[in-house]
Amino acid sequence: MSQTPLLKVEQHGPVYALAIDRADQRNALNHQLIEELIAFFANPPTDARAIVLHGHGEHFCAGLDLKELLATRSENTIIDQRRSKAWYRAFDLIQFGEVPVISVLQGAVVGGGLELAASTHVRVAERSAFFQLPEGQRGIFVGGSGSVRIPRIIGAGRMVEMMLTGRTHDAETGLQLGLAHYVVDNGTGLAFAMKLAATVATNAPMSNYAVINGIPRISDMGHAEGLFAETMVASMTGADASQRITGFFEGRKAQK
Ligand code: 1HE
Q1: What is the pLDDT of residues 75-92, one digit of tens each?
Q2: Which of 14, 164, 190, 208 might form a disulfide with 49, Cβ 3.0–4.6 angstroms?
Q3: What's the CA-to-centroid distance between 28 and ligand 1, angstroms?
């Protein structure tokens, strides 16, 4: 029996809006959702130039589906690691994918929901958004790449403190920490993100690809390796640079 999809896809020209449609369970990530994320991001539509990821309802995402965890946990730790491996695949496909992803964050951005948000490239938080890592309180650890991605955004020390105390950061603090790049009024995040996505979509696709794949990797390299990688990546961009640069100067002349 086929399951009703939990990810809803809408095309708006070069921008695709991808909605997590599980508001009754606060968009908690179950196995089906992770598999649907993998299916979408492994083969995004070839005409997609930017993707907006958002969640239906009052909350972006309540993290791992804890009921499913209780029902499916294996005593065999090797088998149990399959869950994390699926999450790694999904979130790596997002962060190191073909197309920039802009997320819209409202209400709970907690646990695995924060791990998911951290794999997106631009994060727009509505004022209602709050960020928390309650894994310690639930007797578990991050298992969706949080310990790799989140310290690179807020620093290892802050993540340790968040996990030990279970503290909640509001949208404004999230902005200061880099968990969000924008804070907007409640109910306006999707429209704001769609506008940003339309702008991102006008960049050269190869430049966007180089930015999302090159910058996080190069920033992990040593100085010499980084410079070498940068020049290699740069040499692969620029297919339509002459036309774009000429267009830029002609546009400025026309304004004068
Ligand atoms: C869930 C989940 C969930 C809600 N798994 N079902 N994440 C957490 O520890 C967060 C747990 N959730 C919450 O703290 C709250 O639900 C919220 C703050 C997100 C929302 O509160 P509220 O009052 O709007 O909703 P609610 O009444 O708590 O929940 C509504 C329903 O969603 C209810 O189901 P129902 O069938 O009884 O109606 C809840 O059980 C369900 N629900 N959150 C399953 N998370 C790979 S490692 C990652 C590790 C983690 O992510 S740990 C953090 C897990």
Answers
A1: 999 999 999 999 999 999
A2: 14
A3: 7
